TrEMBL record:
Coiled coil: 96-123
Full protein name: Helix-turn-helix transcriptional regulator
Alphabetized UniProt keyword annotations: Coiled coil
Length: 140
């Protein structure tokens, strides 16, 4: 199964075939997803793959190498399987651990950025009546 087919599987099984919902959930434009799963069949960028793993609870092992289960399990559970998977994929356990750590760190950063965006949207949505005013008029 190609990575394009695995992405189609995610969309079908987790988002009822709704590409737009999937793209919004992972934080990319619908065009990006269409370019990967549509007739063009382009390969997703590393950034897109990171977003999928971080925001759609998808196992990086499954997404990148078609190994293990589609849905992400805790790092303790995945570390048990990654050593055997690494041997069959010609990747060292250290390389996989490094990749998983990097993805985890970036997922945490994405979470922090999402919270910042949420806070900014809350601030942006406040009515003008909530704005601070000193009561002094500054007329030229």
């Amino acid at each position: 199964m190609s990575i394009n087919e695995r992405l189609k599987t995610i969309i079908e099984e987790q988002y009822n075939g709704n590409k737009r919902a999937f793209s919004m959930a992972i934080g990319v434009t619908p065009t990006v997803i269409e370019n990967v799963v549509g007739s063009r069949q382009g390969k997703p960028s590393f950034d897109v793959l990171e977003k999928i793993c971080a925001n759609a609870n998808i196992s990086p092992d499954w997404l990148l190498m078609n190994r293990g289960k589609m849905l992400y399990t805790s790092p303790q559970d995945s570390s048990v399987t990654t050593k055997s998977q690494a041997a069959s994929a010609n990747l060292s356990p250290d390389m996989l651990t490094e990749l998983l750590n990097r993805i985890t760190e970036q997922a945490a950063e994405i979470g922090r950025l999402k919270e910042q965006i949420r806070q900014m949207n809350l601030e942006k949505g406040k009515p003008a009546s909530d704005a601070y005013t000193s009561g002094d008029a500054n007329v030229g």
